Amino acid sequence: MKICLITPAPTYSRKGNRVTALRWARILRDLGHRVVIAEEYRGERCDLLVALHARRSHASIARFHHEHPELPLILALTGTDLYGDIHTDASAQESLEIADRFILLQPAGIKELSEHLRDKAWVIYQSITAPPGRFVPKKRVFELCVLGHLRPVKDPFRTAMAARWLPPSSQIQVVHVGGALTDDMKAAAEAEAATNPRYRWLGELPRWRALRILARSRLLVLTSQMEGGANAVSEALACSVPVISSRISGSIGLLGEDYPGYFPVGDTKALTDLLMRVEMDTAFYDILKAWCESLKSIVDPDRERRSWKGLLQDLR
After folding, report:
1. Whole-angstrom distance, CA of residue 228 vs CA of residue 230
2. Rounded to an integer, what distance in angstroms lies between the CA atom of residue 177 and that of residue 167?
3. Domain at 2-126+300-315: CATH code
4. Domain ranges of the chain
5. Whole-model pTM above 0.85?
6. What percent of the chain stands above pLDDT 90?
7. Do 223 and 174 meet the contact criterion of CB atoms below 8 Å apart?
8. In 58, 220, 267, 293, which residue has its Cα 20 to 30 A from 240's Cα atom?
9. Pick from 63, 68, 99: which is nearest to 81 by CA?
């Protein structure tokens, strides 16, 4: 089968949507299919369209459906879709009605869909292969990792702000990997790094390097205001690194409703308190680590491959 995989993220992008598209293309090729990745559908012949993003890929979705109404169409719903566009944007809502199936990256997102659409939902957890080798945390510092581009929705400096409130005795150091998408964000990151001795911004790095930094860290901190299902959380699970996260649906769907490592979105003081507890309370840290270890199987590549195989069989 020939599959067209549409993602609005361009070829050079290291954003999550592009990372996801490339991984899915590999999986689908492993399953024996031909895959073409493009930013938009231009009328080429294929047997199946897979589109990421209900609003931004709407033109491609509408064209494919108009020209090939008999062929199946799968829509992968991003965080922007689930927690924004599908509730307010007419083109995103039309994409939902057109699609034959939806891919969600975690099950909590199903609640965002209208009742008549939920039967189309198919959860596929993002898989990660941890970097090879043994990674030992740095001594004399308690290194935290923030993975994510500098975008407002990521609330990218929240961890740095929380670290400013830590007592002098704390050994916490924040390492932030992620590109600045605007000059203002770049200037803000440089200013924070220059004035905050607990914060280092490394900018955008190749994914293999970012994963190695994560693997040696004692903790991943995710501060996003919304996520469809953050790649960074899946990467942390694969690397056996515990997670602190803002309490958002996208993380609850991955880590569970009762996970003890949440803080309220945008609450700097609550995050500071949680970081202090993780650093000082060994038993609490071990609880987080064991919880995340128990979820490692959901990011196994074989599981994602089986999920895709099942979805394609379901379409027949």
Report:
1. 6
2. 24
3. 3.40.50.2000
4. 2-126+300-315, 142-298
5. yes
6. 93
7. no
8. 267
9. 99
DSSP 115: G
Structure tokens at 255: 């880590």
Per-residue pLDDT tens digits for 55-91? 999 999 999 999 999 999 999 999 999 999 999 999 9
CB of 90 closer than 8 Å to CB of 43? no
Give the max Cα distance, the chain: 65
pLDDT tens digits, 207-246:
899 999 999 999 999 999 999 999 999 999 999 999 999 9
**What number of H helices and E strands is found in the chain?**
13, 12
Q: Does CATH place domain 142-298 in 3.40.50.2000? A: yes
Question: Among 57, 66, 14, which Cα is nearest to 39's?
Answer: 57
Q: How many CB atoms lie within 10 A of CB 2?
A: 12
Q: How many residues does the chain have?
A: 316
Confidence of residue 316 (pLDDT cuts 50, 70, 90): confident
